[in-house]
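Aim 2 progress update. The chain analyzed this quarter is reproduced below.
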Amino acid sequence: MLDAFPHYCSNSIPCSSSNLLPFRGVWAILVIMRKDDKIRGLIACEAARLMYEDGVREYRDAKRKAAKRFGPEKALSLGSHLPSNAEIHEELARLIASNEEDLLPERLLRLRLTALAYLELFSDFSPYLVGSVLSGAVTEKSDIDIHLFSDSIETVEDLLRGRGMEFETETVPIRKGGVIRDYTHIYLEDDGTVIECSVYPVEERRNRTVSSITGKPMERAGVARLRKIIAGTLGADEEES
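Predicted structure tokens:
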């Protein structure tokens, strides 16, 4: 069996089974790692496809659905086959770039302009844009993710009711600082685009949520920064034209 993998052998060592006996354990690990990497890559590609084509929004959901094609999720997880969110994000960005190079700039600008309008609407609640619309990896099914800070959910809801805007609320458990807490999410729709607003207590404004992709504090943009990003995009378009 070992002779079937000559590309692992050093040129200075004859690739026979007898010569490789002392390294049999290392060979087994290398072969397993190769197989793990292949399955991880396949699951990452399938999860990215589900997010791109089917509109699956959460990385964990896409990962679980994709993994079912390759075996029981528990077994895959124990075997380190499940890709990280960062690996799936990389595949998703590659899909978008290869399939929608001409559509992406216009779509991204439209979503960012819509996001800016909602940041201005929620100006009393220290709003920040986060997620794919900020990073730029958007599809036609992407939503707009906004973080709001208020000690009164009712105050946010009263603002929307006063504007005659329809919305839905949901309580979502989120891990922050090693503790799972319940937070309110408010969902709106604007011309087919979902706007998801996560409402946090005012005291948590300086404690940025950890990104599920990078494991670091999440990138976010307030009104001023988003305006600057949009202005930069429009300026670049004018130079190209």
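Residues 1-34 have pLDDT under 50 and may be disordered. The beta strands are 128-130, 144-149, 168-176, 179-190, 193-200. These observations will guide the mutagenesis experiments scheduled for the next reporting period.
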